[in-house]
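Hi all, long-time lurker, first post. I run a small reading group and we've been trying to get comfortable going from sequence to structure in the token notation. Rather than ask abstract questions, I figured I'd post a concrete chain and ask someone more experienced to write out its structure so we can walk through it together at our next meeting. Sequence below, copied exactly:
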Amino acid sequence: MNPEKKRRLKDLIRRLDKDEDPSVIKKEFKELIKETTAADISQIEQELITEGMPEEKIHKLCDIHLEVFRETIEKQKIETKPDHPVSILMNEHKAILDLVDNLRRLTNHALNAQDRARLQEIIDKLKDSSSHYIREENVLFPFLEKYGVVQPPKIMWSEHEQIRAKEKDLFELFDKSKETEDITKDLNNLIIALAEMLSNHFYKENNILFPTGLKVIPENDWVEIRRQFDQLGYCCFIPAPPALTPTEEQTPVKSAPDGKISLEIGELSAEQIKYIFNTLPVDITFVDKEDSVRFFNQSAARIFPRTSAIIGRKVQNCHPHKSVHIVNKIIDEFKSGKRDAARFWLEINNRLIYIQYFAVRDKENQYLGVLEVTQDITDIKKITGEKRLLEDV
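-- Answer (accepted) --
Happy to help. Here is the structure in token form:
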């Protein structure tokens, strides 16, 4: 983009921050530029933050400057094949909106037994749609960050959290509606609010995030993105099989001449180490001293999704924006030696999840990184007495 044109566009966004009338700015924008791409807007957002504008302001201004740029943005057309990850995500957007619209229609009147059965079916499908956001956060966003697109994914992730909160309210209210007959109006109002939130969010992704991704992410990487999408699974529909598959690359492991790796006590082969980690009944993730994710195991019942796209990703970008300050506090205290461990626990789907962070240090007590260990302790908490014999109970 022309440097002068970029400077003037930044000035327009800064003026939005000062509560200037968007209609005036929109008129100036039309006079300033004929063509502005979604990637241009993403780049401008990133540079404004680098220049000192707080991320929170960019997030708040996003809806406003999107409206200012709307006509120009909508001229861009996305053309991808049905098996492409972007096509899959956009089709899921439509399917999710259709689900919510069906909910709205059903709750427009008093519910009978048949309506409730249909509502339950749609609610269950809406719960499954969580895989849509998981794929974006754990695969697409890391690839965007890899090519310098950092702020739009952060904004989208923040909105994912808002959508999850609204859906949680909906699911809880639906459960409550089974016990009372006078809650249909409240249910319908909540569904309408969710529909508006989803519509706005999907518009941004379809018209800003995805066009930007198509511009900056090479075609070979889209093949890998599709492979990792397949690993995490889909919602709403089964996408067309991929036309191309990536070549599996084996990363060699440094080992002793006899094929073993010498450890402080004993020796193990690379294969043994891999399967030991994967057999552990806990999820393990290691973040190095530069705050980059370097390893995670693949336990059979992994609690939080992980894909190879996060390897090399800054750990701060692996968490919702609202919790990054906690992550930074833990890491800072680990690095300073003030703390060696941090522990949290939360309920997810009626299961108690125990999350522990440990500072990893060498024999000289030098900080090497953070080890995250996550475990489902629901059944462990139920243990009482003793068990000294092998039993199937």
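A couple of things your group might point at:
The chain has four domains: 3-73, 85-232, 252-279, 280-382.
Residues 248-255 have pLDDT under 50 and may be disordered.
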